[in-house]
Amino acid sequence: MGDARDWPSALHAVDPGCNSTLIDALRSELSQRPGDYVDVGTNIGVVAATMAAHLAPTGHVFAFEPSPETMRLAASTIALNEAENVTLFNAAASDADGSLVFHATPGNSAIASARRHAFGLLNEWQQVTVPTVRLDTLHADGELDGVSLVKIDVEGLELSVLRGALEFIAAVRPTVVYEYTPLAAGDHGWTQEDSIALLGRAGEFEFTALAEDDGQVLPFPSPTGISAR
């Protein structure tokens, strides 16, 4: 379910395979390491619904989308796909349980963020206070034990999500896929090396980068001049 005034919705309408590189990589990982899936930054729900279909009937999807308007589109996408194995949280996964001022972006829901970034393709910014939750808190409450894969795409807030998930990651040892966009990460004050050092507190990991245009596997940290996620 999309909104014709929203750039990601229009993109999916004209190019249904626009997320295929990421989706193929996630499905491949879940095929090799069966388990539940966490989707942080669900947007309009395309990836979450696709992973739900891949995991049905036994696997479960835990999806997080803080923007109320975008969350309604995600809920519609999930319902239209009859994905009964999805729990959708209208919250931002972060490093604290509480709330934050979120910047919604009418016209381009994919780059809504906790900060106002200097991205193009924006009509305006709208502030809304949204709830926040740590993945560590959910895990301590008895959820997420069966998770084998976590995807985090939150326009620069990735390190905060990881900070709030270290106990969960150390206990469950999932594969963690997170976006690194230099502009957004820089606005939030972190680097590729910072994310590697932080995850090192949860255990030993092997790091690679997936190029979003062609799916090529690259080194991470990425060499100078190469942008990868």
TrEMBL record:
SUPFAM superfamilies on file: S-adenosyl-L-methionine-dependent methyltransferases (SSF53335)
Keyword Transferase: yes
GO molecular function: methyltransferase activity
EC number: 2.1.1.-
Methyltransferase FkbM domain mapped to chain residues: 39-184
GO biological process assignments: methylation
Keyword Methyltransferase: yes
InterPro entries attached to this UniProt entry: FkbM_mtfrase, SAM-dependent_MTase, SAM-dependent_MTases_sf
Pfam families reported in the protein's UniProt record: Methyltransf_21
Keywords: Methyltransferase, Transferase
Protein name: FkbM family methyltransferase
